[in-house]
Amino acid sequence: MSLHAPRILTDILSLDLHRRRARAARRSDAFFLHARACEEIRARIGEIGGKPSRAALVSGFPEYWNKEIKIAESYPDREFLDLPRSKFDLLIHAMSLHWSNDPVGQLIQCRLALGQNGKFLCVLLGGATLRELRHSLTEAEILTTGGASPRVAPMGDIRDLGDLLQRAGFADAVADSLTVKATYSTALALMQDLRFMGETNALDQRIKAFAPRMLFLECARIYGECFARPDGRIPATFELIFLTARAPDSAAPDEIVSGKA
Q1: How many CA atoms are closer than 13 Å to the CA of 6, on its beta-carbon side?
Q2: Which pTM was predicted?
């Protein structure tokens, strides 16, 4: 990633539409990844001495996270976060940084919103997420159309994401990961669950035309042949990456707040 010319990864309007559909579906069982991530974040808050008094949340699903952790202030995960300067002693960035077009810029804004030694906790989806689906969709598209197009967002690996914390000026940066495995009856059931999560394809460079049904049927066939368990169900891998850091003791007075500068 470049600090000066971040590429446009996400179609923000499509991402918002997918999230609205997920909210309207009211499928709480599809939020199992948020639930697992929230459980880990609660544990990490306890490790730093309990929930601080001045805490804020950045998330695409603040209603879920506010209910589970009860953070007083929440902000939508736009590229410009509109966070006040040096106000918080804890900031949680929950399950949305993997969609950011400017992750370094968002991290800088989070750091500047923290007071000295304020704690930063972030959880996002990592590069091993949906590796089975990536493989199956690519193979299916090559077979049915003769080419491949972006259908699953490219997500960062743990080393790269840890480096982003340092580039954003955080101190004591630590990155670790947790693998979550789910199983489904078919790949089509998995893709429906992704819709209920609000995690379907919102890539800016995606093909905008409706995909032929044959593509997804072929994907389901390949997925089953390559990855099915003995009981016939198919596994889906999700990687949760956790970033932990603190704001340094002091910061330069005139810093940029976007990696685009």
Answers
A1: 17
A2: 0.86
The rounded distance, in Å, linking the Cα atoms of 107 and 238 is 23
Cross-sheet strand order for the sheet of 114-125: 73-75, 55-59, 88-94, 114-125, 234-246, 171-184
In this structure, are residues 199 and 133 in contact, taking their beta carbons and an 8 Å threshold?
no
pLDDT of the chain along its 261 residues, tens only?
334 445 777 889 999 999 999 999 888 888 999 999 999 999 999 888 766 779 999 999 998 998 888 877 999 998 899 899 999 999 999 999 999 989 999 999 999 999 998 999 999 999 999 999 999 999 998 888 765 555 566 678 888 888 999 999 999 999 999 999 999 999 999 999 999 999 987 776 666 556 678 888 999 999 999 999 999 999 999 999 999 999 998 654 444 444 443
* AA letter at 25: A
Helical segments of 56-186, H only: 62-69, 103-113, 131-145, 158-167
Q: Report the relative pairing of strands 55-59 and 73-75 from DSSP bridges.
A: parallel
β-pair type (234-246, 171-184): antiparallel
208 Cβ contact partners less than 8 Å away, ≥ 6 residues apart: none
Q: What is the DSSP string of 159-215?
A: HHHHHHHHHTT-EEEEEEEEEEEEEESSHHHHHHHHHHHT-S--BTTS--SPPPHHH
Whether residue 106 contacts residue 83, with contact meaning beta carbons closer than 8 Å, is answered with no
Look at the block and give the residue holding tokens 């997804």: 216
